[in-house]
Amino acid sequence: MTVVDHPAAVLGASFDRDGRLVAADPALAALNARAGGRVGAVFAPPALATVVRLARRLGIVVSRGVTVADEEADIEMWARAQPEGDGVRLAVSGWREVACWAPPRRAGPVAPDAAWRWETDAALRLTLVSPDAGRRHGFDPFALLGRPLTALFDLGSEGDGLLPILSALAGRSALADQPARLRPTGAAVRLSAAVRTDAAGGFGGFLGSVRIVDEEEQAPAPTAPAAGLPAGFSEGLDRALRTPLARIVAHADSINAEAEGPIAADYAGYAADISSAGRHLIGLVDDLVDLQAIERADFLPARDPIDLADVARRAAGLLSVRAANGEVSIERPGFGDAAPATGDFRRTLQIMVNLIGNAVRYSPPGAVVAVAVGHDGDRVVATVADRGKGIAAADQARVFEKFERVDPSEPGGSGLGLYIARRLARAMGGDLSVESAPGEGAVFTLALPGR
Fold first, then answer.
1. Where are the beta strands (DSSP E) in 286-392?
2. pTM more than 0.90
3. What's 304-449's CATH class?
């Protein structure tokens, strides 16, 4: 193991009253930049940012040993943060770079004429976007770090309706010639990537490249409907992702609950974050499995007698804890209300959970999500109304398209939920629609055949 000592004995940085970096010695400034940070923003390396935040919040000197993950090494140092006027002064000493384990990289199809590179972690969050990308296309590559891959690329399908990236994920195999467009500019590109494995041999992310293409070479528009996914896709996902993710979530929950005894609050918080991310990925797996099912030519949900009011009440009940945590109330149909309809109970419940969950997610604290049932001609309808920021008319069709989210920077799902929900509704002989305006919330309406 190679150990490199930094020549400077003490390195310093200063922060303002809001924890934003004001100035830093060159080595610390470079470390911050490699982590995606900049002057005028919160320090990017989490371990050092935590020390600064504690000192500012508690108003005392905080001193501890920390380890910061850099590009090719772990950096061990002693950090001391001291409140100074309205800000905080950080001093680090004992800087020691220790070569760390690096994930093995599988050989993969990296385009020989690649323009620039990108990398993701196992959750498909961007961990690297080449500075060349910013120079070529006029956007800030560092601003995209930590965001989903789809914040940079609008992924498209091939002529057969398949997305190469989905097959690559299912088989933990290299990605070849994925059509896409750059979201910041709309430029047509093709993506290739090798798979990176983690320490346990599982999927660790993609190591990718970008090739700029002519419009004539580009595949059909990214929003074209897919015809289906490869046979055995869901089995591949179960084998590659679901079981390992379930274990990660279980272990993280155990750590967070301090099942083996008390631990530091920071570590309990980290475990909660890991658990939340794991559940998000399991939700993505579920969405992709559903995607395979609904896009099969022979997909046909049941058409049984159901009570849409009962389904709406059940969905609201399933989301009551999440709503309470977000200080949001859910108004649901009364127990005396009935709305006889025809459909698949499980799939209808899935649609209503998606609609109510979205409404809760985008509602401000103190808001009310109103769930109601009624009739529209020979159809039975359930409406979910929220008081969120609303959806512009130009974006209302997009929210039902595959992998589309109006604002990818907001926390949310995979961009598949509403696409799947509408496909399910139409497969049951109904439909799903939205009415909204910016600043006025949104009303989603599920319509099913009556009985």
1. 304-307, 329-331, 340-343, 368-376, 379-386
2. no
3. alpha beta
